[in-house]
Structure formats: C-alpha cells, structure tokens
C-alpha cells in the first residue's frame, strides 16, 4: 500500500509548499472602492502576478482570521495594471474585512493603515475559453456575474487595440438576479460598454438581457409606469430590465437561427439547477451534422 501512497503524498506536499510560498509574497492594496449595498472592490498589485479572464484567487486577511482562506473571482482584465475582486458583505469574515479596510469609517483611510492581504493563485476556470469562439452566450446568476466582468473588460480592451485579430464577434449576455441589490456596480460597467460600443458604431457586438427573477406588485407597477422612458429606471441602461425567467428553449433556437453552422460557446456561473437546464438545451439544440450549429456548454458552480 505504501508504494501507492508515497507518490501522491509527495506531490501533495510539493503543491502545498508552492502554495505556501506564493501566499507569502507581498500584496499591496492600491485602492478600496465602496459600492452600494455593502459591496467593496479591492484593487491590488503583486510582483509577478499574471492572470487570464474569469480566473479566481484565494484570499486571506490575518487581521480578520489567521487560518481562513476564501475564494474570489477576479473582476479585473489581464490588460489592467492591477487585479481586483468584488466582495459582498454577507458574513462574519467579509464583515471583518469591511471593517479592517476602514470602510465603516467616514474619514479618508491612509494606505499604510490598510490590512495585510495574502493571495494564492490565480486558478483557472472554464471562462478562459471565451476567446476560442466567434459567438458566445454568457449566463450569470446573481453574484455569479463576477467572472463576466473580467471577460467583458478584456473584450473591450482587445476590441479597442486590435479588433481585426479578435476571434470573438458576438456576445449574448444574460444576467439573472433575484433582487436589485446586485445591479449597482455591474450596471456601471455595462453602461460604459454600451456607450463606447455606440461611439464606435458597433452596438450589435454585445446583446444583453437582465432578468429580475423576484419582484412584488409595487415593482411591477413601477415597471409598467416607466416602461416608455428611454433608459431603464433600475439600471440606467437602454436595454430594459425583464421580469421573470428566460425561456431558454426560445433563446437557444433564436441564436441557432442567427448563427447557422457555428460553434457557440455557452458559459455559466450559477447554481446547479440552471446548469442542468442549459446543458440539456445545448444538447437538444445542437445538430447531428458536423457542419451544423453546435452549442458547447461550460460551467462553474458556486
């Protein structure tokens, strides 16, 4: 038995030593941004840090806990000179990080007072394959939208610098939220992309649909009253917020008709139930003919 155990244990110890060494490297918090509804953005720098879109890191803050490591998806693009994460304050550890960064204080926080942060990673995810397809469907549920912040930022940087070499030609983006709290910080990014695409006369490059899956009568009435306004009253975007859940069968059929003979990447960051639905639709809407349309499903769950 020991012959079978020694090899894997040696590899495991080597991996733990590499992770320990990486976690000891100095990380500098360059900026802390407070977003609405107790969401903070940490912008950081670390020597030799290289990332791809949609990757995640493990974060430890000794001022909060000496042993706890928590995974966070990177929301910055590889083209930026820093890496960032967005943290929603929903528990003891995140509350401790919120207070350690001085976000509970009104006065300006000096940089030297910010807590020390240890970072391990980055680690790869399915979202890295986005740029292998000409057409993609990005589906984020709630806070699962974070990896697509990195993707959309990177797409924009690539589009600005050399659009001719960009394989990706069309993005269908779906965002499902139970309430409006998560809209705030990500809607700002979509507004910026929307304005910049229109300036370059390529507004069709990004098609997005935002679904509010949980609402009450007051919100529904408000939606009806303001439906004719130029911009959506919730997000400030030209694309109006939709209520309920998408009809995935119709969405897949429509996209298949628009892109015959294409390989379409379907990327999800969301719950297991939604993953099963999208996987079944990807299979049922793919043609048996190799020259026909094919949906390639990729997922990461939380």
TrEMBL record:
GO terms for cellular component: monoatomic ion channel complex; NADPH oxidase complex. It is a multi-pass membrane protein. Keywords: Cell membrane, Electron transport, FAD, Flavoprotein, Glycoprotein, Heme, Ion channel, Ion transport, Iron, Isopeptide bond, Membrane, Metal-binding, NADP, Oxidoreductase, Phosphoprotein, Transmembrane, Transmembrane helix, Transport, Ubl conjugation, Voltage-gated channel. It catalyses: NADPH + 2 O2 = 2 superoxide + NADP(+) + H(+). Pfam families: FAD_binding_8 (PF08022), NAD_binding_6 (PF08030). Its main location: membrane. Gene3D superfamilies: Nucleotide-binding domain of ferredoxin-NADP reductase (FNR) module (3.40.50.80), Translation factors (2.40.30.10). CDD domains: NOX_Duox_like_FAD_NADP. The keyword Lipid metabolism does not apply. InterPro entries: Cyt_b245_heavy_chain, FAD-bd_8, FAD-bd_FR_type, Fe_red_NAD-bd_6, FNR_nucleotide-bd, RBOH/FRE, Riboflavin_synthase-like_b-brl. The keyword Ribosomal protein does not apply. It is found in: Cell membrane. GO terms for molecular function: metal ion binding; superoxide-generating NAD(P)H oxidase activity. GO terms for biological process: defense response; monoatomic ion transmembrane transport; superoxide anion generation. Catalytic subunit of the phagocyte NADPH oxidase complex that mediates the transfer of electrons from cytosolic NADPH to O2 to produce the superoxide anion (O2(-)). In the activated complex, electrons are first transferred from NADPH to flavin adenine dinucleotide (FAD) and subsequently transferred via two heme molecules to molecular oxygen, producing superoxide through an outer-sphere reaction. This is NADPH oxidase 2. It comes from Furnarius figulus.
